[in-house]
Design brief:
single chain, alpha/beta, Rossmann fold, OB fold (Dihydrolipoamide Acetyltransferase, E2P), 2 domains, six-stranded parallel β-sheet, 25% helix, globular
Length: 272
């Protein structure tokens, strides 16, 4: 059975919480993995018309951003920025897309088997419940500051940092994820504090079997990487390593001891 999928991206929430420069082509590939049929690809983008009238560079970049998303088959829903001034003369800028996303997702739910929400906003928890009650599987993708309650409510959570090439590594513009010498993002799969070493894991490919976290199993898309404490940055704590869900960034090098093995270098926390 081919799953019919809808994707709804809260672009502003993603942008300000670690997903800056998110690649819509990679996100589309991820959403369509294992021959899923993509029915809806919606991204909700804030646009400041007043600023665009005064700032040609902002207008140009906004147009290019929207155009690129459309070229990859996304429907771009613009949310015009609104300004509110209080009694003290302080101006607040808002462009909230929550209601639009909720209405569109609920309207489309009867035509979908699975919905991928790309956001970290905990306000979507009632929407997730409503979609699940309609028979939809709901998956969540987020980066930084993702609501824990929302993560627990959905059927599966994906850290956008871990998806190969979804968010570029700024200081490695020609990075080739997964190759020797490349920089990847992953998690600590096993750490031995008394021995000063452990094993990190990273996703080698976009695959529906990301739940198979044991890298030794044939169908697992995860790869295991040996890591020595000497390669770990000082701001990475033992708790970060032991708890297993802290996203790390590191370089891959060939293992001098194990054939086809990998070792991690320059291990640090992801900087959003």
């Amino acid at each position: 059975m081919t799953l019919k999928v809808g994707v709804f991206v809260d672009a502003e929430n993603v942008r300000y919480n670690g997903g800056y420069q998110l690649r819509y082509d990679v996100l589309r590939t991820f959403a369509g993995r294992n021959d899923r049929r993509l029915i809806r690809l919606n991204t909700y983008v804030a646009f400041d018309q007043e600023r665009a009238n005064e700032d040609a560079e902002y207008a140009r970049k906004s147009f290019l951003y929207q155009q690129q998303a459309r070229q990859f088959g996304w429907k771009v829903i613009l949310k015009n920025v609104r300004r509110f001034t209080n009694e003290e003369g302080q101006t607040t800028i808002k462009a909230n897309a929550d209601l639009d996303i909720a209405v569109d997702a609920l309207t489309q739910a009867e035509h979908l088997d699975e919905i991928l929400l790309v956001t970290g906003d905990g306000d979507f928890q009632p929407l997730v419940t409503a979609l699940q009650n309609r028979g939809c599987r709901v998956e969540l993708m987020g980066f930084d500051n993702v609501s824990r309650q929302l993560q627990r409510q959905v059927d599966q959570f994906h850290s956008g940092f871990l998806i190969p090439n979804l968010v570029p590594i700024a200081y490695e513009p020609k990075n080739q994820w997964g190759r020797t010498g490349s920089c990847v993002r992953g998690i600590c799969a096993k750490w031995f504090p008394d021995k000063g070493y452990g094993f990190l894991s990273f996703l080698d490919r976009i695959d529906d079997n990301s739940w198979i976290t044991n890298a030794r199993l044939k169908d697992s898309p995860w790869k295991s990487v040996f890591c020595h404490i000497n390669e770990v940055a000082s701001d990475v704590t033992e708790d970060d390593l032991v708890q297993g869900d802290t996203v790390l960034e590191f370089y891959l090098q060939e293992s001098p001891q194990e054939e086809d093995g990998l070792v991690a270098q320059n291990v640090r926390l992801v900087q959003a």
